[in-house]
Amino acid sequence: MYPNVCPLCFYQGTLYEQQHVHNAEFRYSCDIRRGERPYSCEVCNKSFSQKSSLVRHQRTHSGKRSCVCNVCNKVFIDKRSMIKHERIHSGECPYTCDVCNKAFIEESGLIKHTRIHTGECPYVCEICNKAFRHESSLKRHKRMHIGDRPYVCDVCAKTFSDKSGLIKHQRIHSGERPYTCDVCNKAFSVKCILIKHQRIHSGERPFSCDVCNKAFSQQNSLISHKRIHSGERPFTCDVCNKAFSVKCSLIKHHRIHSGERPYVCEVCNKSYSDKSRLIKHERIHSDEHP
After folding, report:
1. What is the 3-state secondary structure (H, E, C) of 223-275?
2. Third-level CATH fold of 125-174
3. Comparing C-alpha atoms, which of 47, 44, 46 is closest to residue 31?
4. Contact, 142 vs 125, CB < 8 A?
């Protein structure tokens, strides 16, 4: 029997082991579970659960950087940070997921990844109880409640709650499209759009209807399809109250009321309320017959 049990991580051992082994090796994880951050920076008041983390942080204020990468000469405040960085050059990924074998440079990356398999969402919003896998996701989410949008586009002044949203937006102004399809060389400004596009080439349809088993390449297509089974029509015309299962159908319908005809034939200038009718019309000029 071990009379000494840690109430946080359930470590069991003799009194000696509790004092000299557990407290030395595992106190960090217990402090995290408690949410304790007893070590505070006297310059910026940022707090840490480990003293070593505070020491490393303080070097950012002192400017002391003693470790240099021998590949790219990037300078780091400590050896541990440099070792992690060097794995980018070497390709070393020592932390491997035992479910899908995906490998990571840092242990923290593996820990975050395993939550995909376990479904664990340890970070919970105290306002709406929505749960997240990553602390950074929770921080971004909280800005929705308080209206905080600290990232501002220097071209059009549009504001964003997170930096990634601003970066994606700025590509509208710059025209940058850094994500390129390796099959057809089509380029995209956002990685998730490239992933969706690549399914055209691969034929992958990862989203399946649990009613009729019809499969789709995009999740939003599956959501729209499911409304056929449920009869749900969430998009309602504010003029005549006619309801639609997909938003694009509502947009087309609105043009009946507004008279908008945005699709114009470049040969004879005849205009249409939807693109499919313009395409049919253009066949008159091209002598193309379906």
Report:
1. HHHHHHHHCCCCEECCCCCCEECCHHHHHHHHHHHHCCCCEECCCCCCEECCH
2. Double Stranded RNA Binding Domain (3.30.160)
3. 47
4. yes
d(CA 272, CA 256): 11
Architecture of the 4-62 domain: 2-Layer Sandwich (3.30)
| Secondary structure element (H or E) that encloses residue 12, with its range | strand 12-13
Summarize pLDDT for 75-122 with one digit per residue, the tens: 887 787 888 888 888 888 888 998 899 999 888 888 888 888 888 888
Portion of the chain with pLDDT greater than 70, in percent:
85
Beta-bridge mates of residue 236: 243
Whether 34 has a pLDDT exceeding 80, the answer reads: no
Q: What does the block give as tokens for 175?
A: 């025209």
Tell me phi and psi for residue 267, to 5 degrees. -90, -50
How confident is the model over 141-174, as pLDDT tens digits? 888 898 888 899 999 999 998 888 899 999 999 9
In the chain, where are the structural domains located? 4-62, 125-174
Contact in structure between 143 and 132 (CB atoms under 8 Å): no
4-62 and 125-174 in the same fold: yes
